[in-house]
Amino acid sequence: MDLNLSYRSFVLAIAQNPSVKNLVLTRGKGLSRRFVAGDTLEEALKVVEGLERERIHAILDLLGEMVTSEEMARGFQAEIVGLIRALGARPYPRYVSVKLTQLGLDLSEDLAFSLMQGILQEARQADCFVRIDMEDSPRVDATLRVYRRLREEGYTHTGIVLQSYLKRSEKDLEALLPLKPAVRIVKGAYKEPPEVAFQDKRLIDAQYLLLAKKALENGLPTAIATHDPHLIAEMQRWTAEKGISKEGFEFQLLYGVRRDEQRRLAAEGYTVRAYVPYGTDWYPYLSRRIAERPENLLFVARSLVQG
Ligand code: FDA
Q1: How do the domains of the chain map onto residue ranges?
Q2: Which residue CA neighbors atom 9 of ligand 1 most closely?
Q3: Is 184 a known active-site residue?
Q4: Whose CA is nearest to atom 50 of ligand 1?
Q5: Ligand 1: does its nearest atom lie under 6 Å from the Cβ of 37?
Q6: How far is the CA of 190 from the centre of ligand 1 (A)?
Q7: Which residue ranges does the record assign to the Proline dehydrogenase domain (predicted)?
Q8: Residuewise pLDDT in 10s, the chain (307 residues)
Q9: How far does residue 92's CA lie from ligand 1's centre (Å)?
Q10: To test ligand 1's pocket by mutation, which of 254, 255, 275, 296 has the most ligand atoms within 8 angstroms of CB?
Q11: Separation of 110 CA from ligand 1 center, angstroms?
């Protein structure tokens, strides 16, 4: 198994420990600020304005996932609708990401579908794009089904995510092609078993390039979402060689990660978006960011000691 991936599994496993969670929640708020724009929409919008000054657009993400009641799901939907309304009044590109488990997918697929319909109706008024993030592997089928139903209902301003660590993703992309979906390609952020996911970085990276290139060859509006310098460089080289215009795709990175690279790509004329999470439910998001990079664990240890 790849060392980086065993580190990731380790961090994602200890993040489930109640004492670790409690410690980070009580003392790690400062730490969350490296990756999270703030608790409130107002704080997030200030971050968006700062990014816009650097020609980087934002993808706003109200943190929250795996809700356990319909009331919570409806509460998140109301907040997301409020977010879209707030964006509608602003001059910059409008783009949000949502997770279907935030909208009750684990309770009922129909509930998540109908709450998404409400979000997409509002988004249509506000000329806002809505990306459906992809979660862990047991939820992929349901997420793709909800996406397909939304497309059948005529909602075109929404898109899907494919994870290159999942062995199934190439087949999923092929099956989706007739819909001409807007796709975001990522490596994948969850702890997944070897039965469903590649554990070797080389295989994950190879499938990443395969998926991104296949999406672009088929003319799909494609978001290349990675911080990996080798993958970014290869996609820059390959798109230039194929004569694919810079309008045909975009680079997406996470707020707080490789800011220099975000600015560099924007200065070179690429569309660059930063994924900007905000809200109080930051613990699962932060755990995944720490799991992605060993250096981030040192950062956690320092923050917890300093309080
Ligand atoms: P990789 O992990 O190999 O990192 C390459 C380099 O990037 C590292 O060496 C380091 O320099 C830098 N880097 C990466 N992560 C870092 C971090 N946390 N802190 C500091 N430096 C870091 N996943 C998912 O399962 N479903 C989803 O819907 C999404 N959505 C999404 C949107 C956007 C815009 C992005 C950028 C990413 C996602 N992801 C995601 C997360 C994705 O699956 C993946 O976990 C991270 O992007 C990290 O993988 P990289 O491709 O960056 O490569």
Answers
A1: 60-278
A2: 228
A3: yes
A4: 226
A5: no
A6: 11
A7: 44-301
A8: 566 677 888 888 878 877 777 777 777 777 788 899 999 999 999 999 999 999 999 999 999 999 999 999 999 999 999 999 999 989 999 999 999 999 999 999 999 999 999 999 999 999 999 999 999 999 999 999 999 999 999 999 999 999 999 999 999 999 999 999 999 999 999 999 999 999 999 999 999 999 999 999 999 999 999 999 999 999 999 999 999 999 999 999 999 999 999 999 999 999 999 999 999 988 889 889 888 887 887 777 776 676 5
A9: 25
A10: 254
A11: 30
Test site for ligand 1: of 230, 293, 296, most ligand atoms within 8 A of the Cβ? 293
pTM value is: 0.94
Cβ of residue 255 lying under 6 Å from some atom of ligand 1: no
Q: What is the ipTM of this complex?
A: 0.97
* Residue pointed to by tokens 């807007």: 182
CATH match for 60-278 among 3.90.950.10, 3.40.50.300, 3.20.20.220, 1.10.10.60: 3.20.20.220
Q: Which of these is catalytic: 8, 94, 184, 273?
A: 184
According to the annotation, is 189 in a ligand binding site?
yes
Q: Please give the single-letter amino acid code of residue 90.
A: R
